[in-house]
């Protein structure tokens, strides 16, 4: 992987006497978004303290005194998923903390800049010195090199320079900031405690876990300033429209989170119902889902097809999510370790196996193998995402065409490769209708880049690689001539 920063979870709090503990539990609720590293920075009276490390949040803060040392009523934190390129680079663990003569800034970031390499080179040519490979540091240099003495103006100018998909939380001496890109690819929500303190989080599930009330979700091209006076939302970019990354609904977010007012569990269940309409399995006797992110869609498929929903696969809860493991070898080992079959349930049965998506094909191949070994008579695979046939350049670990099995094979070829009795993906229209986002835009609130190859934001530095690696399937899709039965 060549991306600098991958998807993760962000959290911030302002004005809470237990900011360290609140941030710890907020990040714990967001652990599914990143499992490589974690960090927290707190502040009080212009004194900033931080602790960072590799591993899960409860491993990084495995001693009570470690968290207790992070005093202050304000904090930012991140859980992060690293790529293979920066797995061993501890300088990329966030939040990053910078001390300047006039202020200190702690910053954490998720996503990816499509012009990140070019922008970094330009800054270095102007004399900037980088201490990490994190894209978050690019924004810091843009802020500090701005001629304005007003931090808010410098922040706005810096954000306007960036292209791609990104979310930020920043903590300064006098305020907490949160920002989203021009399409709000990922959610960032504001919450409030009963004592008046405010919080920022990547998902609403984190608010629930710490007893905060949902206030508002940032929309495309907005940032928020939170201080002792309250909060203010600023529209720093015009000509914006929301285009949420569909993997937030399909895979990343917890089912108890809401995005743009739509509950993730409900969206997944409705996706399953629509999938049953589009791809019924007349001979099937039961439906099983791949734990855990596919269970809602599987239950929806079962209801839509009037079939029993069974627990046919068990996830070992103490293993990580294979999709965000940094290397193919670890992904394959993770699949073998994380799931087992309830043989007495599926033996001799014709089953529908519902999964959330197929990226590299590692998981589905292994699942079909172990289900057949356990005696499944027929396996009809149903996928609650359209076929992913184009790279994602906005912060998800699918940046190269060679990694996308559906970019190189038709559905009929995939069915044969996986040894499935049938294979069906939900349509793009089906996904749009199932999520039912309340936006009146041409793509109805979802980014469809990975399915259509038509990118909403300029892919800039990745354009040459994209053009050079187009497969016949991708080319036909872009030309509008591809038909996949």
TrEMBL record:
Q: Which SUPFAM superfamilies match?
A: N-terminal nucleophile aminohydrolases (Ntn hydrolases), PRTase-like
First and last residue of the signal peptide: none
Keyword Acetylation annotated: no
Q: Which reaction does it catalyse?
A: 5-phospho-beta-D-ribosylamine + L-glutamate + diphosphate = 5-phospho-alpha-D-ribose 1-diphosphate + L-glutamine + H2O
Could you say which EC number(s) this protein's record lists? 2.4.2.14
Q: Which UniProt keywords apply?
A: Glutamine amidotransferase, Glycosyltransferase, Magnesium, Metal-binding, Purine biosynthesis, Transferase
Residues noted as binding Mg(2+) in the record, renumbered to the chain: 293, 355-356
Judged by the first EC level, this protein's enzyme class is: transferase
The answer to whether keyword Magnesium applies is yes
Q: Give the top-rank taxon of the lineage listed in the UniProt record for this protein.
A: Bacteria
Annotated Gene Ontology MF terms? amidophosphoribosyltransferase activity; magnesium ion binding
List GO BP terms, alphabetically.
'de novo' IMP biosynthetic process; purine nucleobase biosynthetic process
Q: Which Gene3D superfamilies match?
A: 3.40.50.2020, Glutamine Phosphoribosylpyrophosphate, subunit 1, domain 1 (3.60.20.10)
Q: What Pfam families has UniProt attached to this entry?
A: GATase_7 (PF13537), Pribosyltran (PF00156)
The cofactor note reads:
Binds 1 Mg(2+) ion per subunit.
Q: Which cofactor does it need?
A: Mg(2+)
- Spell out the InterPro entries in the cross-references: GATase_2_dom, Ntn_hydrolases_N, PRTase-like, PRTase_dom, PurF
* Biochemical pathway: Purine metabolism; IMP biosynthesis via de novo pathway; N(1)-(5-phospho-D-ribosyl)glycinamide from 5-phospho-alpha-D-ribose 1-diphosphate: step 1/2
Write out the function statement from the record.
Catalyzes the formation of phosphoribosylamine from phosphoribosylpyrophosphate (PRPP) and glutamine.
Q: Which family does it belong to?
A: In the C-terminal section; belongs to the purine/pyrimidine phosphoribosyltransferase family.
NCBIfam families documented for this protein: purF (TIGR01134)
Q: What is this protein called?
A: Amidophosphoribosyltransferase
Q: Could you tell me which species this protein originates from?
A: Aerococcus agrisoli
């Amino acid at each position: 992987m060549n991306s600098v920063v991958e998807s993760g979870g962000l959290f911030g709090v302002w004005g809470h006497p237990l900011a360290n503990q609140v941030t710890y539990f907020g990040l714990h609720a967001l652990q599914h978004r990143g499992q490589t590293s974690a960090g927290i920075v707190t502040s009080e009276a212009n004194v900033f303290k931080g602790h960072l490390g590799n591993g899960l949040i409860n491993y990084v803060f495995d001693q009570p005194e470690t968290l207790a040392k992070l005093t202050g009523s304000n904090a930012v934190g991140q859980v992060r998923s690293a790529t293979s390129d920066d797995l061993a680079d501890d300088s990329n663990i966030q939040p990053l903390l910078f001390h300047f003569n006039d202020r200190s800034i702690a910053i954490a970031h998720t996503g990816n800049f499509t012009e990140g390499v070019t922008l970094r080179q330009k800054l270095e040519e102007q004399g900037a010195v980088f201490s990490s490979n994190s894209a978050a540091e690019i924004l810091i240099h843009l802020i500090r090199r701005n001629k304005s003495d007003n931090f808010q103006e410098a922040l706005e100018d810096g954000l306007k320079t960036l292209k791609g998909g990104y979310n930020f939380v920043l903590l300064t001496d006098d305020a907490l900031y949160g920002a989203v890109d021009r399409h709000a690819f990922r959610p960032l929500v504001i919450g409030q405690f009963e004592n008046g303190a405010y919080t920022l989080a990547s998902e609403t599930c984190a608010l629930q876990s710490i007893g905060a009330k949902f206030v508002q979700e940032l929309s495309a091209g907005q940032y928020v300033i939170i201080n002792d006076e309250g909060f203010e939302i600023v529209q720093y970019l015009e000509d914006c429209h929301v285009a949420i990354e569909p993997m937030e609904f399909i895979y990343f977010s917890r089912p108890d989170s809401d995005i743009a007012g739509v509950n993730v569990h409900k969206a997944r269940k409705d996706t399953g119902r629509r999938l049953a309409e589009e791809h019924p399995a007349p001979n099937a006797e039961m439906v099983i889902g791949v734990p855990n992110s596919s269970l809602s869609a599987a239950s929806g498929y079962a209801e839509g097809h009037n079939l029993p929903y069974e627990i046919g696969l068990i996830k070992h809860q103490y293993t990580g999510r294979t999709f965000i493991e940094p290397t193919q070898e670890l992904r394959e080992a993770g699949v073998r370790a994380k799931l087992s079959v309830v043989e007495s349930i599926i033996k001799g049965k014709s089953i529908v196996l519902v999964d959330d998506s197929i990226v590299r094909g590692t998981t589905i191949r292994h699942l079909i193998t172990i289900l057949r070994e356990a005696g499944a008579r027929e396996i009809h695979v149903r996928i609650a995402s359209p076929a992913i046939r184009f790279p994602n350049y906005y912060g998800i670990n699918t940046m190269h065409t060679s990694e996308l099995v559906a970019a190189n094979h038709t559905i009929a070829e995939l069915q044969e490769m996986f040894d499935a009795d049938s294979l069906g993906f939900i349509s793009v229209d089906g996904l749009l209708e199932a999520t039912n986002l309340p936006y009146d835009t041409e793509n109805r609130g979802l980014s469809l880049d990975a399915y259509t190859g038509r990118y909403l934001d300029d892919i800039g530095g990745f354009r040459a690689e994209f053009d050079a690696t187009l497969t016949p399937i991708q080319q036909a899709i872009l030309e509008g001539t591809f038909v996949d039965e």
